[in-house]
Amino acid sequence: MTNQAHIYDTFIVGAGISGIAAAIRLQKVGYNNFKIIEKASRVGGTWRENTYPGCGCDVPSALYSYSFAPSAKWSHLFAKQPEILSYLEEVSEKFNIKSLIQFNTSLENAAWDDSRHLWVLDTNQGQYLAKTLLCATGPITEPQTPRLEGLETFTGEMFHSAKWNHDYDLTGKRIAVIGTGASAIQFVPQIQPKAKELYVFQRTAPWVLPKPDMNLNDWGKSIIAKYPAIQQTWRNSVAKSLNAINFGLRNPIALKPVNALGRQLLKLQIKDPVLRKNVTPNFTVGCKRLLFANNYYPALQAANTRLIPHGLVKIEGNTVVAANGERHEVDVIIWGTGFEVSHPPIGKKIHNADGQRLSDLWKNSSPEAYLGTSLENVPNAFLMLGPNVLVYDSFIGLAEAQLDYIVDGLQQVKAKGISKFTIKPTVLRRHNEEVQKHLQTTVFNSGGCKSYYLDANGRNFAAWPWSLATLKQRLSSLKLPEYDVVYGNTANAPTKAKSKTKTVAA
Question: What is the mean pLDDT of residues 464-484?
Answer without folding.
Answer: 95
